[in-house]
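re: ur msg from earlier - yeah i can do the OOB complex, just paste it... oh wait u already did. ok heres what im feeding in:
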Amino acid sequence: MTITPGVDAPTWPEEFAERYRAAGHWRGETFGGMLRDRAAAHPDRVAVVDPAPERRTWTYRQLDERADRLAAGFTARGIGRGDRVVVQLPNVGEFAEVVFALFRIGALPVYALPAHRDTEIAHFCSFTDAVAYVIPDVHAGFDHRDLASRIRRRTPGLRHVFVAGEPGEHTALSDVPCEPAEVPTPPRPHELAFLQLSGGTTGVSKLIPRTHDDYLYSLRGSNEICGVDAGTRFLVVLPAAHNFPMSSPGWLGVLYAGGTAVLCPKPDPATAFPLVESERITMTGLVPPLALVWTDAAGQSEHDLSSLELVLVGGAKYSEQAARRLEPALGCRLMQVFGMAEGLVNYTRLDDDFETVVGTQGRPISPDDEIRIVDDAGYDVPDGEFGHLLTRGPYTIRGYWRAPEHNARTFTADGFYRTGDIVRRLPSGHLVVEGRAKDQINRGGEKIAPEEIENIILAHPGVHDVAVVAVPDAYLGERTLAYVILRDGAATPGPVAVKRFVRERGVAAYKVPDLVEFVDAFPQTGVGKVSKKQLRTTAEQL
Ligand code: OOB
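and the outut:
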């Protein structure tokens, strides 16, 4: 297994890298260079629009200059190549400035979600030895500066906190830029560009190392499939840090093509529909629960949505019935996307027939995406039969960052990623997602590792044991249910107290269990393990 110079992650063996270069997938581009080229080619086109609270725009030239000046300021503060910087920004223009500045100096953004709290952020900062943390001042009523102060006390290696807005005791991002003096050597295309978060199946999220070469290929491929070009006006509705709105085709895909990314501060129709109208939005990406809300709201809306050409829906299973309703309601095309931050992304195609678009989750971007569908024993199943999806290809990682033991389980010896998804393949190559083998809950596209929540609840003095499972939900697809066995004689918490306990531990709100049920014992498997399968069946009958 080869290691990219200076970073702790497995990468593609040289024979694969050569093949991907020869096929023209990896073209030796970097993100920093990409923005430079676009700024030279069309300096005055608008790259980014941040509509709230007052409309701000960045042309390609402005974004390029701003990234240079910020890169110089970061360099002057001792941030350099390979350093990790946790970026927790909502959908604001500074997001693009910061990450392009980091790309330029070869520092690695670690993409936290706005919902993350003390537990997650402390883990990202300490696990990656982050030197800096970038935050908004207050977002959605939450003061990120206080969070940052707590994190700094726990994490001595964290040298800087940069704030987009009022800095409090930290450093204002607006004070960082300076005149570019010495240009650091730019990173090379095969090197890491950033660390993305995995949905996680274990106690903590794993980090996903993506290179310039591989991610830029996924953008180029996505743009071609989705028809993204310089005229595309993409509304970033989901959190900009998530892989789907970032790269499928996402705001980075749109910047690659010379189009315009408009950052939506909130995903609800009351916020988004006026922006679709005023910004003449042509494309966006939604998770299934939001697609449902938009579909229902469109009928009553007075806003002109006629500029919309394409809506991508993915991140969780989109029911066929809901999918059938989207095109007539929103007056645009639907594309389903089944992707993962680890790499592989599948899309239905613009020339697929309607039944394929509503009934499948698409086919891979690349002819070099290798797909295997195997049974429990690891043997390939015939087309049309369910099995575990394994994949390998030019933009799918060969291992998580600093996680050798987990990698040994999650990747086959010959480099296939075990996605944990159960799929079947149609003769056309389209995949239908049938379920999941991994222990993960998909709450409307937000991924939750039950083990993480179980560990938190187990710390409650009144709790003897706990098992967290998914319950089906008409709106979110799945919700979380914590089955709790109480400790004899201890002061026993009620459901509300259990939820409060989790919240007070400082985790993202979407991880707090929706339901808490008390039981005397758990059903067991033949070998005496807790049978989550049985618990899920019981939960379905609630
Ligand atoms: C996207 O990425 P992640 O990393 O948050 O989650 C990946 C997992 C997949 O392994 C699968 O379990 C689930 O999310 N998933 C879907 C799905 N799209 C993702 N399950 C059923 N149907 C779908 N359409 O969620 C992501 C990354 C890039 C593009 C789109 C989604």
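cool cool. The chain has 17 helices and 27 strands. ping me if u need the other ligands too
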